[in-house]
Amino acid sequence: MAANTTGNGSVPCMMQEAWLGGPTHEDFLRYNRLILLSILGLPVCVAGIVTSGLSICLFCCDKKAPRTTRKLLIVTSLIDVQFLLLSLFYLQPLTFCKRTSPLRLPLLNNILFVLVNILECFRNWLVVLIGLERFLVVCFPVHSKVWWNGKKTDGLIGGCFGFSIVVRLPLISYLAIENVKPEWSGVTEWFYQLHSFTDSILVTLIPLIVLIVCSLQIGRGLRRSDRFRLGPREYPERQTLSTVSQKQNTSSKCSIARRVKLTRGLLIVIFTFTFFMLPMVPVSIVQLLSHHFFTSNCAYLITVHFCSYVAALGSQMNSTANFFVYIVYWGKYRKMLKRVLGCQYEKGI
């Protein structure tokens, strides 16, 4: 969530009509917040909390996926649950509770806002780790076993969490000084500019670029793998292997097929994540340029708040959509889901 959505600004023109006979600019933003973050966002968050919990159960039951991949997916789903839950507690009181409500206390709002931003940054970089792991597996299949193992995965997960906290230190400092020393306007403005920079570059643009590059490389690697596996069909004279050799290669081919199917599924997850991250790009650009090219006028405030609402909904969609990709793409996860929900009692899958 790039911008704090608690207010709509204090520029006098916000009380003017957005169009002739229409609502004021402030009411216009309030209606958009209601539609995007409550009417749409509330069901998305509730569904995401449930589906992310089911995803954790599915990954715990799946013993065929690589341990490092399974660990990343489980941690990502755990973060999704926490992110969506805290988003509910932060965003919905802004719409449904009065300013005097205990749920809208400034201290509570600031704490929730910081936690949501930390979890969002952590989740983004966890998805980057998933993309990097698949990139290494596809493009460097031999070296990936050495370069990427359980201990390194644990270290990278811990490093991403620590990095997410460090990235949000400017935001924490900005909110703390704004509440304790409101007269230090120059200091708070500097910390907010620093937060805008880190949020735009380190939370949005760099992860987005890395995911796009990894996706393209993974796609190329999968196409090369398909051509290699289909080679014998194109050249029948090469199919002179003995029956014994064919049997020896059967298990290897099955393993490769499972790995390719897993990679394709995770590539769809990465594409989906990248798509829902795109609304963050205009917010990031506006944040980076606002202090140099824009002033706090109505056009700027309406743009940054509306884009922030869309970006917040996209971020919530990112934490919800993965489960549906798993269920639609993998038949084994559909069978596992039936078992988890008590609809199927077979021992095997």
UniProtKB/TrEMBL annotation:
Residues of the G-protein coupled receptors family 1 profile domain: 51-326
Cellular compartments per GO CC: membrane
Cellular compartment(s): Membrane
Any GO MF annotation of the entry: G protein-coupled receptor activity
Entries under InterPro entries matching the protein: GPCR-Ligand_Int, GPCR_Rhodpsn, GPCR_Rhodpsn_7TM
KW Transmembrane (keyword) present: yes
Transmembrane annotation, as ranges: 34-60, 72-91, 153-177, 197-219, 266-289, 309-329
Keyword Signal (UniProt): no
Keywords annotated in UniProt: Membrane, Transmembrane, Transmembrane helix
Top-level taxon: Eukaryota
Organism: Dibothriocephalus latus
Record-given protein name: G-protein coupled receptors family 1 profile domain-containing protein
Predominant location category: membrane
